[in-house]
Amino acid sequence: MKETSTIIEVESWVLRLYIAGQSLKSMTAISNLKKICEEYLNGRYEIEVIDLLEYPELAGEHQILAIPTLLRVSPSPVRKLIGDLSNTERVLIGLNLEPKT
Amino acid sequence: MTQSKVAATSRPQLPKAKTGIQGLDEITGGGLPKGRPTLICGGAGCGKTLLAMEFLVRGATDFDEPGVFVTFEESVDDLIMNVASLGFDLHDLIARKKIVLEYIYVDRNEMTETGEYDLEGLFIRLGCAIHNIGAKRVVLDTIESLFAGFSNPLILRAELRRLFSWLKNKGVTAVITGERGEKTLTRQGLEEYVSDCVLTLDHRVVAQDSTRRIRIVKYRGSTHGTNEYPFLIDEDGISILPITSLSLQHEVSSECISSGVPRLDSMLGGGGFYRGSSILISGTAGTGKSSISASFTDAACRRGERVIYFAFEESPAQIMRNMRSIGIDLGQWVEKGLLQFSANRPTLNGLETHLTTMHKEINIFKPQSVVVDPLSSLLVEGKDIEVKSMLMRLVDFLKVNLITGLFTNLTSGGAALERTNVEISSLIDSWLLLRNIETGGERNRGLYILKSRGMTHSNQIREFLLTDNGIELRDVYVGLNGVLTGSLRLAQETQEQAAQLVHQQEIEFKQLDFENKRMVMDAKIAALHAELAMQEAETMRIIAQEKAKVHQLKLNQIAMAKSRTSDVDVMPDFGEAS
């Protein structure tokens, strides 16, 4: 996990969240994401929220099926998380972030 | 193809989307439910994707209904390549915005589930694709691959339900393919309940012969055929065997056509077989079944009709050579384009494939008569019941199209002659039985008509001869010594001729004898006549003498009286004496 820590230190994170309208799951996902980023990434992050109802063609281009989907655009490799991000432990595993002890 | 009678009622019918797939519209009574989801399930390699694709392509090309094909399994390029071999040019259809291919890639390993989610993304993609080309048809292939990407079964079941109702709300005719479960129709055991129509495909191997079958498990709001129907995938896509046996209402003809053997025609009541009837010729090996078939073929071609000869045992060249030996030249008809041979080893294909190929050839060549020689060799293929159902469909198909079908059937030695191996007698209108009659150290061929529906046919057995000029039928000898054929018949005939000659001579002799007797009698009568005449003459002479004497006496008396000068005036009475 040392490697990961170095990445965190040197790179800024780009996260993209795909949602569909103002649904409950989407709203939950946004607030969960903000909370986790605030806690673990300490300002070195950028969140992009894409509402597929506004840009439906992006769903095909980015191979999005489940809503909400969180995409870790950088650092590479790209990682995909689905769900409302309420399970913090799994989010951290999915993003490859080390949980705080 | 004939129209099925199922949908031919005046009641309001469920709106249906024609599939354009050969045979499927017949068994579904007009197509899949329009604007509703249909599930096609089946194991691997049974043709689900192809059926779905053909549904979409036919919709786009034949019915002007653009379609979206969502594939979860194959990439777009693979899919285009795979169906190109069946003659579907997807590149062109995509370019003309008739079809959209959507490859949705699902990989569970790339996804981490972190809480509640739904498949809205899929809906959005679908909605987008449908909207872009104004699609009326949607295919999802296969639903299992979609499921495989997500681990939460509760969410999936809920989403699946939502997907089906979403598709319904969109008003698209949807086809969803799914894999068969262990004991249920589908893996989730849910799809079949939310679909309005469920078709199962099956790929079975029985006795090394694989057959694909389709069955309509359910169809809400519509009647449908309930059987398993075999289908075939070939270079033209899918063809489900045309089902004509749903009703027994075909037209019949009372026109008779010659069998090519005049004597046989007269046995059948004068004209021969009815046009469009099914004829079975059964018999043991070497009884002349093929010869009768050839004779029938020859007669049909002579009338200018077209014939397809399906041979399963001999090559066309061999048949033509053999038939030339009995004076039937089939080669000339082939040259004139009236006769088409179709010779295949029965083991080449499964039964259903044979049947479908036959259907195709018949549809293309449009013959008035079809010969299948012999049916029994198809038996090495499937099971009896399958052969029977195949034949039933073939016979039905021929009858509906008013094509005369002549089948030969090899009866194995020892089996009852009246029994066909395939139990098809009930399908047959005219049944000729050929048999070997063994007497006097030789085998001879006998023919009789076991049945012939709607004809006053002969009940006699006839001896069947293969001569240089074709087939001849002879009366057999039926007498005190039983039924005689062949040289025994000839011997018997010679014997009878001799006996008749003797008899004839006897009669002649008796006539002669009588003639003689009459002559003798005549002579006697003449002699008696002569004697009588002589006696008469004698009698007359005596009488005359006596009269002369009396006269003389009287003259003497007168002379004496004169000399005595008697006073008595005695006048001589000359009147008395003369």
3D architecture notes:
The complex is a heterodimer of chains A (101) and B (578). Chain A has helices at 2-10, 24-40, 57-61, 88-95; strands at residues 13-19, 45-51, 69-74, 79-82. By secondary structure, chain A is an alpha+beta fold. Chain A starts with a helix and ends in a 6-residue tail after the last helix. The model of chain A has no long low-confidence stretch (mean pLDDT 81). Chain B is built from 16 helices and 25 strands. In chain B, the strands form five sheets. Chain B has a nine-stranded mixed beta sheet, sandwiched between helices. Chain B is rod-shaped and about 200 Å long. Chain B starts with 15 loop residues before the first strand and ends with a helix. Chain A binds chain B through residues 18, 20, 23, 25, 28-29, 32, 52-53, 56-57, 59-60, 63-70, 79-87, 90-91, 93-94, and chain B through 102, 104-106, 110-122, 124-125, 127-129, 146, 149-150. Strand 4 (79-82) of chain A pairs parallel with strand 6 (111-113) of chain B.
Summarize this, please?
Chain A is α+β, with helices and mostly antiparallel strands and 101 residues long. Chain A contains four helices and four strands; from the N terminus they run αβαβαββα. In chain B, α13 packs parallel to α14 (384-400).
Query: How many DSSP H or I helices of chain A?
Result: 4
Contiguous runs where pLDDT drops below 50 for at least 5 residues of chain A: none
Order of the strands making up the biggest sheet of chain B: 5-4-7-8-3-9-10-11-12
Label the structural class of chain B.
alpha/beta
